[in-house]
Fold this sequence. Notes:
Elements: H1 7-18, H2 23-30, H3 34-46, H4 67-76, H5 82-91, H6 98-107
Helix pairs in contact: 1-2, 1-3, 2-3, 5-6
Amino acid sequence: MARPLSLDLRSRVAAALAGGATVREAAARFEVSVASAVRIGQLARAGQGLAAKKLGGPRPLMLLNATEAITSRLAAKSDWTVRALAADLRAAGIAVSHDTVWRFLRRQGLSFKKNSARQRDGATGPGAPADALADASA
């Protein structure tokens, strides 16, 4: 995994840029990427600290504020598909993708498992063969 540049290296790059070196010269001299040298220069000119920011970490839950909207929709109509629920939330002004809705439902412990009422007619249990289809010409 990538590591942040040390504070010492950041301060040396910032000092070189403040001393008149170009971004590419400072990047080559200290063996950092040009993009990193640009960001360090921007932070130094803005007067912000040069300390590295935290890498990674958990992402905020997008639908935490929409819990009531989702549960009310599921209470009114229990046979939503994830894509239909996402489309309905988008129509209500909540910007989500179907994957965001799926992850939210999984975290809430909700799932869309098949039950006996939704299985094909004639299936008597797991692994049981389905009945033969009726003759189409009849």
